[in-house]
Design brief:
mainly alpha, elongated
């Protein structure tokens, strides 16, 4: 039988995506901060920081997406999976980040201002919305509401 009681083995497993999902949620808002810094100073260093932050967020976002697909096959992750609305917001955020990364691939001022800065701001707003949607689901689970 082992060390675990049947009740402990039936507990929900932590989703794999929860390891990788925080990275885009940090990188994309920091890209907004570096875009604002670039628009204020016109120092190319900030544009490069934005491009690298977007790249890192996209890489970890893609890994989180693959981990989320793996989590769909794990029945024990069902209670801790994000809802459909949160998943849809995650996909929209990643799509906007890809577009933003393509805009940031340009040279000079127009690579960030105005479209890159606007996309970074929209991505940030969607991240805040996704966090709110996800937090509401987990709060209901924790409090059994």
């Amino acid at each position: 039988m082992g060390f675990f009681t049947p009740r402990q083995t039936d507990a929900a497993a932590m989703p794999l995506q929860s390891v990788f999902l925080p990275f885009p949620f940090v990188c994309f808002p920091l890209a907004l901060v570096t875009d604002i810094a670039f628009s204020q100073t016109a120092n190319v260093m900030w544009q490069n920081f934005s491009a690298w932050l977007l790249f890192a967020g996209l890489v970890f976002g893609a890994v989180a997406l693959v981990a989320g697909l793996i989590d769909l096959m794990r029945p024990r992750t069902r209670p801790l999976r994000p809802g459909f609305g949160a998943v849809l917001l995650y996909l929209i955020i990643l799509a906007l980040a890809v577009l933003n990364s393509l805009i940031h691939a340009g040279d000079g001022w127009t690579a960030v201002v105005p479209y890159g800065l606007a996309l970074s701001a929209v991505t940030f707003v969607l991240i805040v919305l996704a966090v709110g949607v996800s937090a509401g689901r987990y709060a209901k689970l924790a409090w059994r509401v």
